[in-house]
Design brief:
Length: 97
């Protein structure tokens, strides 16, 4: 009887793995076109970039901002005790490096 219960539990447990919905990660179609960036003041950032930063990284502080000839932005941000560098275009779309 114990073997039957254990076998049923294993079968039911393995079936739940097939019942899950696959998670799709949105792929970003934007790519960085140029590496030469010039530092700018954070007050020069477009509103779309500021809104995208706040939406994606709530509470983030932009410590430095840079721009290249393609109007792509390099942002150095800090959230609590962590820091990161992210890239965005003028419309607030995130760019993969």
């Amino acid at each position: 009887m114990k073997k039957t219960i254990v076998a049923a539990a294993i079968v039911l447990g393995s079936l739940t793995a097939f019942a899950t919905t696959p998670v799709q990660i949105a792929s970003n179609q934007y790519t960085l076109t140029q590496e030469e960036f010039t530092e700018i003041g954070t007050d020069k950032l477009p509103e779309a970039v500021l809104k995208a930063t706040e939406k994606t990284h709530p509470g983030a502080r932009i410590t430095k901002a840079y721009i290249n000839k393609e109007n792509q932005y390099k942002l150095e941000i800090t959230v609590k005790d962590q820091s990161a560098t992210v890239y965005a275009d003028a419309d607030g779309n995130w760019i993969t490096k």
